[in-house]
Each structure stands twice: as C-alpha cells, then as structure tokens.
Write a structure and sequence with these properties.
Elements: H1 2-20, E1 24-32, E2 40-49, E3 53-59, E4 63-74, E5 77-83, E6 86-88, E7 93-96, E8 101-108, E9 117-126, E10 131-141
Amino acid sequence: MNHRLLALALAGLVSLPSLAAAQVSVSDPWVRATVPQQKVGGAFMQLTSAKPARLVEVKTPVAGRVELHQMAMEGQTMRMRAVDSIELPAGQTVNLASGGYHLMLFDLKRQLKEGEQVPLTLVVLDGAGKRETVAVSAPVKPLTYKAPAAH
C-alpha cells in the first residue's frame, strides 16, 4: 500500500513542472482607479505567449463582465470596439494599453481604489484549441497614472 502511494505521489511530482509551465506570461498588469458610482473601468498589461495563441476571455469578481477591446483610428476619429479575441503571436509581447488593445470592466460592483489588488482570470486558447487559464493580480493605480512605455 505504501509503495503504491509513493508511486502515485512521485508520478504527480514528475508531471507538475509541465503543468506549472504556463504558455502565457503576464507582465506589468494594472487597473485604473475609479470614482464612486463609476460602473466601467480599464485593465492593462503585457502578454507574451510561448506558442501562437489567442486571448478569448477575461473574468473578474469585481465586474459583471469583461470585454476585450481595441481602439483604432477610423478616418479622423478614434473608435473603440469590442473584439472576440486578441492574437498572441509566439514569442512576441502584446501590449494591452490605452489607445490599443485593452480590457474593459463593465458593471463594476464597487469602486476600485488605488493600492487594491484586482484578481483577473485570463482564458487563452492555443493553436490546438486547448484552454489555459492564467491568474493575475493587478494593482489599482491612480486615475492619473500613465504606464511606462512597453518593453
């Protein structure tokens, strides 16, 4: 009996590194602070995927829903629109920032205050359609915060 448990435990340990090696890494996540009664917020970060993938969904307990958005010039006007997914080319950093791709938090359940941490769960699909979730804790930055240029 003890040998069987030891074998199962060792098998689990051997498989842990492959499970723990995330395909997508996140750097510099942050969420913009909100004012009382504000119902919409924004979240920003840099994403790098080891393999071609797509960000397809984001969840957070602080909002009713999260949408993937893109800002782009249409003629002389900057427009923001929801997108179904954000492509993550292999080995390239994709910057989710003001003025480009970003995350919109709708139906906020409370004010987001500077210094708090907002939990986000990113859902990514790889080229084979395998889902991966990535847990992110994003600090809330002041309303006036400007992120440093992406690296």
